[in-house]
Amino acid sequence: MEGGTVAPWGASWAWGLPLVVLTVLFHATGLGFIDKGVRSMLSREGRLRNLMTAPIFALGGTAFSAAVLHGLEGFMWAETYRFIGALQDHKSAMLYSLNAMTSYGHENLELAPGWQMMGALEALDGLILFGLTTAFLFSVMQNCQRVLRTKPVQPD
């Protein structure tokens, strides 16, 4: 490292680790709210319970909602990159963030010197978040299958 021209890696860790914790807590909370909606939709009292389409709406809505959560979490990282001066504009920050979070990393964008460790931390965060989403989607699919296997309630 050239004498004082780059932020030490400690700054990346100091910003990145709390952001990982924040986004994981945000994601888990969001999945909890989504779960409430799915359970309500698939319950006996749910308006769509008698329709075979309820599981389709539940799964599609879950996937959409999870994608929105991931986008919001990418936005959190992007705004942090802008705040610390690691990227110069919002478009680049968001594109970099989604590339890092998904481990796509294809675009020719780089964080300012000294902040590259944050990109790796965001990729780690993405793995955690996508793991949580995958487990949650699997759970929703199991609930949907359970609903499809049960006989629909017939109105009296």
Main features:
mainly alpha; elongated; 156 residues
Written overview of the protein:
This protein is mainly α and 156 residues long. The chain has one domain. Helix content is 71%, strand content 0%. The chain contains four helices and no strands. It has helices at 9-42, 54-84, 90-101, 116-149. The longest helix has 34 residues, at 9-42. The protein is elongated and about 60 Å long. The protein starts with 8 loop residues before the first helix and ends in a 7-residue tail after the last helix. The relative contact order is 0.18. The model has no long low-confidence stretch (mean pLDDT 88).
What is the radius of gyration computed over CA atoms, rounded to a whole number of angstroms? 20 Å
What is the tally of beta strands?
0
Number of domains: 1
Uncertain parts: none
Mean pLDDT, as a whole number?
Answer: 88
Termini separation comes to 76 Å
Helix/strand order? HHHH
Dominant shape:
elongated
What is the number of helical segments per DSSP (H or I, 4+ residues)?
4
Secondary structural class: mainly alpha
Q: How can the largest sheet be summarized?
A: none
State the helicity in percent bands: over 70%
